[in-house]
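Consortium newsletter contribution from the modelling node. Members have asked for a concrete example of what our holo predictions look like. Here is one, prepared for the 5-phosphoarabinonic acid complex that several groups have been discussing at recent meetings.
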Amino acid sequence: MAVRFDFTNMLAPACSGGLPAETLATSAAAFTTAVADVTARRAAGTLGFPMLPEDAALRAALKADALASRGEIDDVVLCGIGGSALGPNMLRSALCPPRWNELDAEARGGWPRLHVMDNVDPVTMGALFDRVDLTRTRVLVISKSGGTAETMSQYLVMREKLNTLGAEWPKKVLRFITDPEKGVLRAIARTDGIITYDIPPTVGGRFSVLTAVGLAPAAFIGIDIDALCAGAAAMRDRCETPELAKNPAGVFAVLQQLHDQQNGRSIHVLMPYADALRDVANWFVQLWAESLGKALPGGGNVGPTPVPALGATDQHAQVQNFMEGPHDKTVTFIAVGTLDRDITIPALHGAFPDLAYLGGNTIGALLDAERRATAGALASSGRPNGVLHIPKVDAHHLGELIMLFEFATAFAGALYGIDAYNQPGVELGKQFTYGIFGRPGFEADRDRFNGLAQPDPACSV
Ligand code: PA5
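And here is the predicted structure:
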């Protein structure tokens, strides 16, 4: 069984706020153009993510490195941010048993814990540094550009600690994952002889989870990266067809883009009903937001706002807004066919019918009933929603899901008429940071920042 997208409630008449029932038929031509855009970029050698699952040599090298370290190390620390952290985080939380980092070595099968920094908060960084024994750790420094301030600061703190252990330790402990040629990290790797895995220049950060960015940390914690890539390849093959009705990523992209641009639904909620998939939503947020939120070449702006949610938890937090707030959202649920385990709810307190109805059911059945109930409630209130059905949370099916979202993002970029692969909007903030920190070459940015309105005491309470 494969991942499938059920879009019944994205359309009328199932949902009164849905798109016209004939939407897929009327979108066929636009979708053909989107497929042509993706095909052309692939042919030009500028869009690398679809072929990543074919790199068996990389997977063999990573598995060998990970196996050689197994038993020798207790922890893997990942220095990275954004696309260099969200994917690894998603792989760990989806594919390792729950609370992986709290399990003992035996329960982890001898594989290490994985700590993904993904920020420069000194409080959490400090707590991690206090805890790990660097002589029993691998530190993966992941940066495509090889110069991101947050990642390089994490690295510098780590590097000083490694240097104090003795000359042989940095080389033993560190692994770099970066551009094959460019960047400071690559230069340090060359000078210091650090084992380094390439991020192909044709793959942007948020599309990089199936490069060494995601596969290296995954291999180090024993995830079946071959199955992950096999699933991704299977979905890629499904997403290559220009026949919209047969293309799951195409249908997802077309319906989301039309709901945004023709139906006022510019907020796209992703709501998995499984704790293991919570970080899929966080990973998707970056992919969708950074790829699609863009200024149009001829003026104006586009871009849906992705929102992560978790079922059933967010039924008690966000669903009130999804039901009665503005008609500006679509909700995509992720439903899991078979959970890894289930728990029967005991039939206790039979004297209380308001409690007794739960007894004899399972927790998993309750979770799924809540998902179906929420979808039905939304649809009956004119709130469009769809369901991505994943048969099981395992490496193969997660690979399918990843590739589906990546293709959907590529198609959506073409449908919006923007470049989904750049992120010019994050540059100014970076330049101001460099200016504030006194980085040479950024004096003009410092001056421009200092020339901005400063916090006004009159506007502070
Ligand atoms: O998608 C992107 O390109 C970005 O979000 C990057 O992943 C993020 O900025 C980190 O960049 P780098 O991997 O170069 O350190």
